[in-house]
Structure formats: C-alpha cells, structure tokens
Amino acid sequence: MFEALGIFMRWLHIASVATLIGGMLYGWLVLVPATGVLAAEARKALADRTAALYRPLVFGAIAALLVSGGYNLAANPGHHPRYYILLCLKLLLVAHVFAVGIVLVTKNPEHRGRLFGGAAISGLLIILISAYLRHTF
Q: Which uninterrupted H or E stretch holds 104?
C-alpha cells in the first residue's frame, strides 16, 4: 500500500509540473506572440478568457505540488547538505513560478509575455535541478 501511495504521489507531482510549466511555455511561446496581431480589445478579451480557463489548472497544480512535494520530502529524509542547498534553490524558483501563475490568472497584467517567459525559464531550471537531484542522490 505504501509503495502504491509513493507511485501515485510521484505521478501527481510530475503531472502537476507538466500542467503548470507546460502552460507557462505555451503562453510564452505561442499565446502571447499569436495575440500580438489582434486589436487591443480583442487581445484583452482573449487574455481574460484564457486566464479564466487556466485559473483552476494553476490552483489545482499548486495544491497538488504542495501535497506531493511535502510527501516526497517526508518519505525520503536524510540527504547530504548539498542536496538541501539545491532543494532550497529549487523551492525559491518554485515560489517564483507559483507567484507568477497566480498573478497571471487573477490580475491579468499587460506584461504577460515577460511573466510567462520568466516563469517558464524558472520552471525549466526547476526541472533541471530536480533531474540532477534525482540522479545524484
């Protein structure tokens, strides 16, 4: 039973990361450039609609990442100090992605492209650090 819970939590963590970071990459590389040719009113309407549709995914992914990440950390204690240093760096980047995600779906700012880009880059760095930690420790 414990093994099945661990597998489920790992899947939940990876699926939530894919949802959150994938959405940021899509917004940065596809949505923002595509809306650049629209009139200001149409661009705002599309941004409002996409933010409303992405909102439950962002909040669901954040909640799932907090639960599954906490579980994964509690289930695998006793690492090297270098692991915890990199984990803290990763968590700072995670806080950035969470904050930007919340701003993008609640405030709908004008500089969406920069926010999507910064969060996407932070997300890719999080995945890189995670891969290193998983491989090394």
A: helix 81-106
